[in-house]
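Sat 14:20. Reprocessing the chain from the morning session after the first attempt stalled halfway. Input below, unchanged.
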Amino acid sequence: MFRFILTSICLVFIFSTSSVLAQSMSKEQEKVWKKRQKTMSVEEFKKKVEGYETATDEAYKLEKQVVSTSQALAKREKQIDSLKEALAEAQKEKIVTTTAQNSDSSNSDASSNELDDYSKGVVYRIQVGAFRDKDLMKFVGHKRFHAEEDQDGVKKYTIAAFRDYWEGDLFKKYLREMGVSDAWIVAYKDGERVQIESVLSAQDQEMVQSGGTKNDDID
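Finished this time. Tokens:
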């Protein structure tokens, strides 16, 4: 393509130069050319004129092609610039979107942490033991393991945490089936241990006293 453009430009320059030379021809040169014209036959002169006209026409076409090609190249460069700008904008939008998603994720994690805050509201835990001599305090760091010591120095250990009494009751029964015979359910409100009766509804209290259950998985 580059060679074609260069050749076209050269041809246009040559024919333009010839035209200028023809316009600035002196009287002596005119005489010389008139003599040469007289020595030519009509057929030869016709061929010369037609050849010149053909060459001029081709030069004009080539000039138009050069202009058209230049315009096409300029248009292509504009398209490339537009694509570069669009790509840059897309990258910016991606960064903003990723940042927003990370922010939403952080907020979601924070909300999740708030939902897992068992120091607030009513919580049911499963007590698995109460000892004076056995110290399991090194395990208290686990979020599902809880320990407390009463005024008499008895250490009470609980595992898991449930918002629903009957879910905790079902887990207690599973533990008993696995051999933890001392497992029983206890209640906390805002981090303080309370009597289950003070947080259970009247209906649930009645069901507990009658030995009933809302869970059909274990009798």
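The chain has a mean pLDDT of 72.
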